[in-house]
Amino acid sequence: MKNWKLTPRDSYVAKYVECYWFLEKELKDKVFNYPKLNPDPAAHLILADEAQGYQYSQDSLTTKGNGSHWIFPHCKTLEMDHSQPFLILGVKFRMGSLYSLNLTSPQLEMDKIINVDLNEFFQSESFHAANLLAKATNDPQQTSDMLDGLLLPWLLDSYEDKHSELVRRALLLLPDTPIAQMGTVLHCSKRTIERSFLRVTNLTLKQYQSMARLEEILNCLYLLTGESLNWADIATKFKFSDQPHLIRYLKNSIGVTPGEYARQRDLSIDIYGNFE
Question: DSSP states of 148-204 as a string?
């Protein structure tokens, strides 16, 4: 299994793109065939060969297709079909970026997987995903630089308004500032912040904080083995009132209890590593 993650070197691209990531599974690789993608407030553009199939399942809904596609922000765990060999590049956008990037309203809906025509997207009839994917297997940095060049013309057409500017400032504060105090820090009402945040991200402030907390927990769990998983300690570390509260939180967030998670370890972070 090959994988890598790089940040854009172009400063303007980096304003909207958090990172590029790459995954390749070959026939010889023995990994979990149906990994789960944890909830994510960011959107990912997946670049793949037009013949490459994909499948995502969420509750009773399954989305299938071929080739390149968007994974838009999702509040629930997605199960992926990685039972066959595959080769994909991902572009992880910063939270709220799509609001400024001239995507139409239906594309900004949560929990959507939508196909994309890369020739139309990059406005180039000569673009071939297969060529870029082949480069990605051997030269990550050049691939990252090529993606910078491909994305820059589109990103330069972005726009910022009072809502996107306010959300960008709010996102910087959210890790360390209680929601109730954000209005004072940003010199506006809490209701104004909430309305702009929902408009730009399709999430409430509380939903985002919960997803950010989940990511911290999963990053912590990734570093622990089965023997060192002490759920009472984890509940205390992440300021849950008690262990049953943590159990309910994980069940609601990733669909399994801590015990089930410890037995399966089938989230993508456990299988592929913390690569994105």
Answer: HHHHHHHHTT----HHHHHHHHHHHHTTTS-HHHHHHHHTS-HHHHHHHHHHHHSS-
Find tokens 């990550």 and name the residue: 140
pLDDT in tens, 30-77: 888 999 998 999 999 999 999 999 999 988 899 999 999 999 999 889
User: What is the SS3 assignment for 264?
Assistant: helix
- Name the DSSP letter for residue 74: B
Residue 256: half-sphere exposure toward Cβ, Cα within 13 Å: 16
> Token pair for residue 64?
């299938």
Place of tokens 């999430």: 203
Give the SS3 label for residue 270: helix
Q: DSSP label at 108?
A: G
Which H/E stretch holds residue 45? strand 44-48
Please report the pLDDT score of residue 105 as a whole number.
54
> What does the alpha-carbon distance between residue 38 and residue 116 come to, in Å, rounded to a whole number?
22
pLDDT at 8 over 60: yes
Q: Which residue has the higher pLDDT, 225 or 174?
A: 174
DSSP element (H, E) containing 109: none
